[in-house]
Backbone:
C-alpha cells in the first residue's frame, strides 16, 4: 500500500468549517491543464442540446471537462430544468424557484441520445424539493423513452437525496437504471456548511437503500476535497461509504465557481489523489476514480465497465 500522507499534509491542518471570510483566491496549480477546443464533436453536441432545448450539467455547473466530453460527442444531461431548489455553497447551478415540469423533456432527451448515437448515457437533475415526488416520475419516464429507442442502452442516473422518500427512490430503481449514484459531496462534519438542505446520515441511508434494493443497480457515490477536511475524515468517509454498500467512488478537487461560492481551502496534488485511490482500493471498493479533474460523471461507464460485465 502507498504510505498515506499525514493529515497536516493533506488537509489545511485545521478542523474548522469552510471560511466565510473573503480572502485572496488560491492560484490554480500547474497540474490543472484544460484544453479549450471546439472541434466538430463539441459543435454537434452543443447544437443538439440547443435544438432539443435540453440542459447539461457540463454547462450549468461549469465542469472543467466539458471541452473533452463534448469533443468526444457525449454529455451529462440534466433534467427537470436548470434551476435548483437548494443553494449549496459549492455548486455553480442556479438556485431559486424552478419552472413547471416539462413533461416532453424525456422524449426530447431520448431523441438527442439517438442523434448522438450514444450506447450509454449519464443523466442527473437539479434538486426539485418543490415536487411531490422529487422528480422521480420524470427519471422513470426518461428511462422508458430511452429504452423504447434502444433496449440495450446503458443508463446511469445521479440523483439527489429525494428527501429520503424511499418510494420515490424505488420508482427510480425500478425504471431499470444500470448505475444509480448519489453524491455525499463532503465529509460529515462539513455537510451543513457545504450542502444546504442535505444531511450526511440521510445520504448514507439513501446509498444503503439503493445497495439493498432488488433489483440492485451498481451503486455509486462521490465527494470533493479541498474544503477543509482532514485525512482522518476522508478515511472515515470512505469506510462509511463502503459500509453503505457503495461499489464505485469518485474523488475530485473542489473548484470555486465564483467569488460568491465558498473558497478553495487547499489544492491536492496528483500524488495525493493517487494515495486516496489506493486507500479506497484497500478498503475494498469495486472501482475508485480519483484525480484533480475527476467528476462523478466523467468517463462514467469506463468506471462501471467491469461491474456491469462489459469487456
Residues:
Amino acid at each position: 500500500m502507498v504510505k498515506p500522507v499525514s493529515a497536516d499534509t493533506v488537509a489545511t491542518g485545521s478542523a474548522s468549517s469552510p471560511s466565510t471570510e473573503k480572502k485572496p483566491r488560491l492560484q490554480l496549480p500547474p497540474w490543472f491543464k484544460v484544453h479549450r477546443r471546439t472541434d466538430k464533436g463539441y459543435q454537434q453536441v452543443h447544437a443538439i442540446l440547443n435544438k432539443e432545448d435540453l440542459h447539461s450539467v457540463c454547462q450549468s455547473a461549469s465542469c472543467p471537462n466539458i471541452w473533452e466530453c463534448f469533443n468526444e460527442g457525449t454529455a451529462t444531461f440534466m433534467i427537470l430544468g436548470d434551476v435548483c431548489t437548494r443553494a449549496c455553497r459549492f455548486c455553480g447551478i442556479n438556485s431559486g424557484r424552478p419552472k413547471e415540469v416539462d413533461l416532453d423533456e424525456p422524449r426530447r432527451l431520448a431523441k438527442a441520445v439517438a442523434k448522438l448515437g450514444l450506447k450509454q448515457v449519464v443523466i442527473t437533475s437539479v434538486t426539485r424539493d418543490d415536487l411531490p415526488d422529487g422528480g422521480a416520475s420524470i427519471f422513470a419516464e426518461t428511462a422508458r423513452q430511452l429504452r423504447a429507442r434502444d433496449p440495450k442502452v446503458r443508463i446511469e442516473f445521479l440523483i439527489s437525496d429525494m428527501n429520503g422518500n424511499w418510494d420515490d427512490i424505488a420508482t427510480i430503481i425500478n425504471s431499470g437504471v444500470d448505475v444509480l449514484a448519489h453524491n455525499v459531496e463532503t465529509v460529515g462534519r462539513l455537510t451543513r456548511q457545504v450542502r444546504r438542505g442535505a444531511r450526511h446520515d440521510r445520504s448514507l441511508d439513501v446509498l444503503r437503500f439503493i445497495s439493498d434494493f432488488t433489483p440492485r443497480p451498481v451503486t455509486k457515490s462521490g465527494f470533493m476535497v479541498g474544503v477543509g477536511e482532514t485525512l482522518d475524515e476522508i478515511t472515515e468517509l470512505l469506510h462509511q461509504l463502503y459500509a453503505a454498500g457503495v461499489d464505485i467512488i469518485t474523488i475530485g478537487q473542489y473548484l470555486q465557481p465564483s467569488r460568491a461560492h465558498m473558497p478553495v481551502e487547499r489544492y491536492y496534488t496528483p500524488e495525493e489523489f493517487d494515495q486516496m485511490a489506493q486507500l479506497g482500493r484497500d478498503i475494498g471498493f469495486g472501482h475508485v476514480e480519483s484525480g484533480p479533474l475527476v467528476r462523478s460523471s466523467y468517463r462514467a461507464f469506463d468506471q462501471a465497465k467491469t461491474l456491469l460485465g462489459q469487456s
